[in-house]
Design a protein that fits this description.
By secondary structure, the protein is mainly α. It has helices at 2-33, 38-47, 51-62, 67-77, 80-89, 98-106, 110-117, 125-152, 155-179, 181-200, 205-223. The longest helix has 32 residues, at 2-33.
Length: 232
Amino acid sequence: MNKEYFIKGIKDGIPIGLGYFAVAFSLGIAASNAGLTPFESLLSAMLLHASAGQSAGYTAIQEQIPYLEIIIVTIVANARYILMSFALSQKINPKESTLHRMILGYYLTDEFFGLAISQESYCNPYYVFGAASFAGPCWSLGILFGTIMGNILPNNIVSCLSVALYAMFLAIFIPPAKKDRAVALLVILSFISSFVLYKFVNISTSTITIILTILISSFGAILFPRGIENEE
């Protein structure tokens, strides 16, 4: 039974892995711009599976801000995983081993969370393990190759490739913004606030990220609270 789930996970993880490689390649370019070596970027990819968190971390490293601020901005960028782990815990069999729970937590990404949470009844951990066995290395190798190419390509080409990273973030928030006016308003507000702070306040980009994430998310939670949907 576990073998069947593992094989099914591999099949479902193939498209995720291909998408991971493309996105991670752009993050590798950002890591190269931050001065990371290929080994350092590979190590960061293996320890942290989070595009937004890694992007914020690489930007903070490039700006040479204090270590404490790098830690804070990474935690803020990855705060959504706290809520995801709460939700995922309800899909894990109470009898599941601690080791399996730790591995699931290690591979808690948006995509793997979507796979796990969509399973009927409890999620078999071997299903996620199968998906991660293919998609996980794609993420790490994408960042490694992106860093290598960023170190050898001319600066003008590297600058062009860096634009792909912004396209990734556009693909994340534009669909929900089109469906929800509250989300669209908060996105526009974040754009304007970020521009104003960057242009007229002498603080680092990482500090701006921390401040705006806390303020705008709090603003959205107060003005646009979400009710609990009734389950049929």
